[in-house]
Amino acid sequence: MNIFKKQNKELAVIAGCGEFGSKIAVLLQKKNMNVHIIDIDENSFSKLSPEFDGFTITGDAADIDLLEFAGAGKASIIIAATNDDNTNIMIGQMSKHLYKADEVVVRIYDSAKKFLCADMDITSICPCVLSENEFKRIISDKESIAV
């Protein structure tokens, strides 16, 4: 089976098809990328919008053979967005070191683990830190209006 049906497009591989992974998949597809998304639970793919025409793969994204099958070696971006920080970090490390992906992004819930990606050229997104920064912005905006 040839899962690289759109050879002329850049490939994105996403691990995790939850709320975040499914939204990113559609966003990258709209940016004219070929998207392969992996999730251990086949039911998770129901979160993808009807316009999604990428490739879905059921299985454990931390499995090297499955990442290989998904095209990690050809991907220009690999995103680890499972619901487990350790799994995301491990996928990020494999993507950077084994597959030499240009861009690797991992979602990390526990901000204390963010340092694990700092020296590996892996971008980490921490919802807690993003929320904290947004809250600071909101409070700052309200203070400047009150003055």
From TrEMBL:
Keyword NADP, does the record have it?
A: no
What are the recorded GO MF terms, alphabetically? potassium ion transmembrane transporter activity
Query: Domain of life here?
Result: Bacteria
| SUPFAM superfamilies named in the record | NAD(P)-binding Rossmann-fold domains (SSF51735)
This one is known as: Trk system potassium uptake protein TrkA
> What Pfam families does the record tag this protein with?
TrkA_N
Q: Which PROSITE patterns match?
A: RCK_N
- Location of the RCK N-terminal domain: 9-129
Which Gene3D superfamilies did the record assign?
A: NAD(P)-binding Rossmann-like Domain
Task: Output a single Gene Ontology CC term carried by this record.
Answer: plasma membrane
Q: Which UniProt keywords apply?
A: Ion transport, Potassium, Potassium transport, Transport
Organism annotation? Sedimentibacter saalensis
